[in-house]
Amino acid sequence: MNLLPDVRVHRPATLEEAVRLKAASEGARFLAGGTDLLVNLRRGLGEPTALIDLTAVADLGAIRREGEALWVGAGVTLADLARHPDVPPALAEAALAVAGPTHRAAATLGGNLCQDTRCVFYNQSQWWRESNSFCLKKEGDKCQVVAKSDRCYATYHGDIAPALMVLDAEALLVGPDGARRVKVAELYRETGASHLTLAEGEVLAVVVLPPLPGWRAAYRKVRIRDAIDFPLAGVAGALKRNGDVIGGFRMAITGTNSAPLAVDAAELIGRPWDADAAAVLAQLLRKKASVLRTTIVGPAYRRRVIQGMARKLVDELWA
Amino acid sequence: MKSILTLTVNGRRREDLVPDNLLLLDYLREQLGLTGTKQGCDGGECGACTVLVDDQPRLACSTLAVQMQGRRVETIEGLAKGGRMSRLQQAFHEKLGTQCGFCTPGMIMAAEALLRRNPHPSREEIKAALAGNLCRCTGYVKIIESVEAASG
Ligand SMILES: Cc1cc2nc3c(=O)[nH]c(=O)nc-3n(C[C@H](O)[C@H](O)[C@H](O)COP(=O)(O)OP(=O)(O)OC[C@H]3O[C@@H](n4cnc5c(N)ncnc54)[C@H](O)[C@@H]3O)c2cc1C
Ligand code: FES
Ligand code: FES
Question: For the segment B97-149, what is each residue's pLDDT rounded down to a tens digit?
Fold first, then answer.
């Protein structure tokens, strides 16, 4: 028998009901595919009083065109996302790169974007963490990665957020005070213990993808086991070529910092993609990616591999 | 906290009173006695607990039983019909796709999901579909051959 917190599980049929239930029950968490949350709860990472299961909310599961834009419900599974004909290839690629096929049949877009941050000192059993005097993210008062730090450095390892960021996507959030739309990048802040900016009671309802004529985009990651692992580092890029020069450029990284981060590369616009431009990009990535000892693979490799992956990715988009 | 769960398990409709925090894995193994579904890890890593939910593969260890309301759940016990193993089970037996057997129920359910949506998969498609299922004995070759044998 496995032990989970003694929760009440609600299974609302509408978004309104889900939001109302969340507001009414203190300490409640949303549950979707469960492939992140239930695994964590089994390790004592969280003590919710109630779970609000979003998988029975019918209107969260749709993918539809709304004018020029594509609206993807937060409840769409990653398996469905990857095989839908209207989904941009870079997003399908990122969805297919998440975990293994059985996870993807249950895991949702919303759960992927809102997944917890990770760390070798955090994703462990209760007794393991206890023997280490816990850590800043949970129950402890010291960060095991950066000893004198007053903030947690757990890392964001989601694959889909960076792809959505370079596709200029927005998230539609619904809460007790109504709905608001933010850029996907604005869902996050760079602190491992509270990396999501969603307000108390807000649910991620839809991801809105604008049309991007003339852009090419892709996502790449490295992992320990190619079949099933979180990214040690991941990079998404989008490029619009303007004849012999770069007309538009967006890049975002994951698996390196406490949030998925956009790499501002405005200085590449208007120049060709050549060895000099690649050196500029490598420098920008070096500054942006503050990889620490949060995975079992050492930081030196992750720092270098992200630069190599980014270069190869832009080579492909440019060709 | 408990709820009434109505679902179909291996073709039979059931109604059970289950704790809200019960994992599908423990519901199947402890409450229904269907111990064919295995637990190989402490959460989401190994695929030994794979069952079918409405024909899709699902990790029973990362799913709550109450999430199965109105759904059709199938476990390894549901594959044999009239005391005879299914073609896929028979193939695992004959092609030595099983050694210690611990990963086998999960492997077979993941392969079963594949064969239902794609009765004649390529070797690559078989590998991709079983990517989340770990086996510490066979080295995978015999497993892939077993699935191929069942799909030929
Ligand atoms: C072995 C293994 C490997 C994995 N590999 C990867 C990987 O390579 N890449 C990767 O990105 N992830 C990976 N994961 C993590 C996880 O499987 C995915 O991130 C998955 O997409 C999570 O979705 P879910 O629906 O299962 O989320 P859940 O576990 O149900 O929820 C995750 C979190 O999101 C919140 N949430 C869910 N939906 C909403 C919503 N609509 N609005 C607001 N909050 C919401 C929940 O409250 C919870 O905090 C892996 C997990 C395992 C066990
Ligand atoms: S028991 Fe290992 S994935 Fe479910
Ligand atoms: S047969 Fe022993 S783990 Fe696969």
Answer: 999 999 999 999 999 999 999 999 999 999 999 999 999 999 999 999 999 99
For an interface test with A, the pick among B1, B21, B35, B74 (most A C-beta atoms closer than 10 Å) comes out as B21
* Chain-chain contact of A106 with B50 (C-beta, under 8 angstroms): no
In sequence order, the 6+-apart residues with CB closer than 8 A to the CB of A288 are: A253, A256, A257, A261, A263
DSSP state of A116: P
In sequence order, what are the residues at sequence separation of 6 or more whose Cβ sits closer than 8 angstroms to the Cβ of residue B140? B130
A77-103 pLDDT, tens per residue? 999 999 999 999 999 999 999 999 999
Choose the closest CB to B42 out of A5, A33, A43.
Answer: A43
Which positions 142-201 of A are in contact with B (Cβ < 8 Å)? none
> Strands A215-222 and A233-242: what pairing?
antiparallel
Nearest Cα neighbor of A193 from A269, A268, A136 is A136
Query: Best mutation site among A45, A102, A123, A124 for testing chain B: the one with the most B CBs within 10 Å?
Result: A102
Q: Kindly report, residue by residue over A215-271, the tens digit of the pLDDT.
A: 999 999 999 998 899 999 999 999 999 999 999 999 999 999 999 999 999 999 999
Which residues in chain B have Cβ-Cβ distances shorter than 8 Å to A296?
A: none
Helix axes A275-288, A299-318, angle to 10 degrees: 140
Task: For the full predicted model, state whether its pTM sits above 0.90.
Answer: yes
Residues A258/A288, Cβ–Cβ less than 8 Å: no
What 3-state DSSP class applies to A106? helix
Whole-number Å distance between alpha carbons of A298 and B72: 44
What CA–CA distances, in Å, run from A19 to A14, A161, A178? 9, 23, 10
Contact A51 B64 (CB under 8 A): yes
